[in-house]
Design goal:
The chain is about 20% helix and about 25% strand. By secondary structure, it is α/β, with parallel strands linked by helices. Helix 7 packs parallel to helix 8, helix 8 runs parallel beside helix 9 and helix 9 packs parallel to helix 10. The chain binds alpha-L-arabinofuranose. The site of alpha-L-arabinofuranose (AHR) has 10 residues, from loops.
Length: about 550
Amino acid sequence: MAQIGRREFLAATGAAAATLLAPRTSAAADSRIEILSGEVLGRIAPEIHGHFVEHLGGVVYDGVWVGEDSKIPNEGGIRRALVEHLRAIKAPVIRWPGGCFADSYNWRDGIAPRGERPTRANFWVDVPEIQGTAQKFEPNAFGSNEFMRLCRLTGAEPYFAANLRSLEAQDFAEWVEYANAPAGSTTLAKQRGGEPFDVRYWGVGNESWGCGGNFTPGEYATEYRRFTAWVPQMGVDLRFIAAGPSSGDYEWTRGFFETLVARSRGQIRSVWGWALHHYTWNVSQGRTNDWIEGKGDALKFTDEEWYEFLREGDRMETLIQRHWDVLAEFDPQHHVKFAIDEWGAWHRPGSQVAPTHLFGQQVTLRDALLTGLTLDTFNRHPDKVAMANVAQVVNCLHALFLADGDRFVTTPAYHVFAMHADHQAAESLRTVISAPRVRHTRNGEPESFWGLAGSASRKENRIVLTLVNPAIGEPRETEILVRGAAIKEARWTHLTAEQLNAHNSFESPGALQPSRGQARVTGGAVVHQIPAKSVVRIDLTV
Ligand code: AHR
């Protein structure tokens, strides 16, 4: 497992500018943050707060779709509580219908009048963990039009993921036509009804190195080229997202682009987003061979596993940088950006709220810290990351919501997305963070982890600073300054708890909630205690 050392971290956050630091204002502080208001890294794409809905377990059926006739409050069949909460965090984009499911999905199954749609075996039918019948069989009640309803209700932009493994390029082109052809213009437009969906984002296959076809990178590049050639534009600026690597598979990135540009360098321009996937898990003791059971537990973990998990999640920084370096070999102008359309925590089964929720899991304080540190990482790379989609929105890995029948609860991950929402479309500012490293043990040996990490962004005279303190036992007395401006007012939001595995449940929906207050400003700077094991937001008016 790769680690990011203090040196790389400091370099990434601009610590090379340490000589620029202003004089200390508090002798008591053990940590210091300087926000360099003159050093804008770029605009933070709102789409990095994107979501993901797959026909898998309890995500669509139960989570999103309850049906028009349900007693559960709904908007045209879509769970109302989910819609309201996604609106509240300004959900910018939703990816659908998979994941692995996407490469088994025939979009035509989901467009007939509801009662006439076929039932099919779901992609996940053979995973033994699915109990009962839910999601073994796909009723197709939720298709393209229902997904668009979800998008319109929440204000999110649609991101359709197309089937490259088991349908043809013609089917892809016709799905684009179904979605985007002007009203009444073609047979498919008439079938769709109403105004065009204007879908800009199109995934061209998913994990094509695995469930998406077991392709070599070269084979996939050839398929990708064929699928994306001469797709009807219908006046929409189509943005194709190519199936990228799993975590540190740099050969997938290199191999794909080598073949893609073999005939012409110009082919680079057909790729809008490169879909890196990175999941975070602990390897469970003695059960390392099974891809599901080999993962660690969502609720039961040791202090060592706490840091191990955060370390695994923190690899995102290195993955972005190193894949970016490979992209530069083919695309020195960096036309292609990352669409990190699957990321999040993946624990072994056992904590799901209903037996049919395949890959459903509880979301604890530990997962909240992973959420914070990942979103901060994206904020620090606004030039590279154009979109990211947490996997998945409800009843699945790293969910923001858990729902079962008429019960619904927000998870700590939801609260972190809410705390970060104001970073959307703001200017990311270089931020120098200096804090003592956290000491812990790893396999019986002394080890350490960074002491504080975060990101800052500005909209006019308002700065939002978000931080993660990973230390289980050490709060950080932190001095916060803005280079080139005096802080006039500061407010804090903390998300923390006594228990490392604190989480919300249907019985205790408010067990883990943010708390808020006013911070002390002295001489244009702030000294504030960042609690141990916390995600923190500081709002500064300058
Ligand atoms: O998010 C669950 C699965 O993880 C997705 O279907 C697949 O793309 C990935 O391997």
